[in-house]
Design a protein that fits this description.
Distance between the termini: 22 Å
Number of domains: 1
Length: 260
């Protein structure tokens, strides 16, 4: 079943500051202290045993811990952001590094539909429901056909009275009408669900595309391209489809858990 998202095209449109910790002052070697002139008071032992020095050592230790934690956080943020942008268009990234803002961007709906996890999930659900309805209708159709076949046999064998024939025909007609009404009901349910699926997918694409553009590119327009779309040609330099697909799947997995 092909999901067409063309109708939604028009809608597409810390560094951590680490406070300086106290510098660690060099510790004078104990051997150097033995060269003091005679009669002078020996300097206090250069260790963390006395209360003032123990307090100073504690603050130095805390400073190192804070510094280490800040550096780790900085690396985590750096590599997380790097992973998030791993799908960025290299040509477009180079353009942005020069301080230039693209006037327009493009996303390819065909690629998104083929690679967005939610599309497959919703499509599979829709097909499963359609198959269930189809099996039910086929079963009822088979029962009705069997009844009609038996009716014809009885008519040919002249085992039915005129009244019985009229009653049998009326019953068959009623069952056929009921079956047709059920077919129309299921067709309406599936059509409404397909529309809902298309809207959910389109809204997800629009939301993520807008978020990426607002965060990074600030382009005036974002056009959707696909087979048979109004966009005849677009430069690959301005295509952010891979970024959109990556963030769509990442957002879905964050909200719903990793899809197996």
């Amino acid at each position: 079943m092909e999901i067409n998202l063309e109708k939604n095209e028009e809608r597409m449109a810390d560094v951590i500051n680490i406070e300086n910790v106290a510098e660690v002052q060099p510790v004078v070697a104990s051997d150097e202290l033995k060269t003091e002139p005679v009669g002078t008071t020996p300097p206090a032992e250069n260790s963390c045993k006395s209360a003032p020095k123990r307090q100073r050592c504690c603050w130095i230790t805390v400073g190192f811990v804070v510094l280490f934690a800040a550096v780790i956080t900085l690396f985590i943020l750096f590599f997380t952001q790097k992973g998030a942008d791993s799908k960025a268009n290299p040509a477009l990234a180079s353009l942005m590094e020069k301080g230039e803002t693209p006037y327009m961007l493009t996303v390819n709906n065909d690629s998104i539909v083929a690679n967005f996890v939610l599309v497959k999930i919703l499509t599979d659900d829709l097909e499963e429901e359609s198959s269930r309805y189809q099996k039910e209708l086929q079963s009822k159709q088979s029962v009705l056909e069997e009844k009609y076949k038996n009716y014809q046999i009885n008519v040919q064998n002249q085992v039915l009275t005129k009244t019985q024939m009229q009653n049998a025909e009326a019953q068959l007609t009623q069952e056929a009408a009921t079956l047709k009404a059920l077919q129309e009901k299921y067709a309406t349910i599936l059509a409404n669900k397909q529309t809902s699926v298309q809207k959910e997918i389109a809204d997800s694409i629009i939301s993520v595309t807008s978020r990426i553009n607002d965060r990074k590119y600030h382009a005036k327009y974002v056009f959707a391209t696909s087979s048979g779309s109004a966009v005849v040609y677009s430069s690959p330099e301005f295509d952010i489809t891979e970024e959109v697909i990556a963030e769509l799947n990442r957002s879905y997995e964050k909200t719903n858990g990793k899809h197996e």
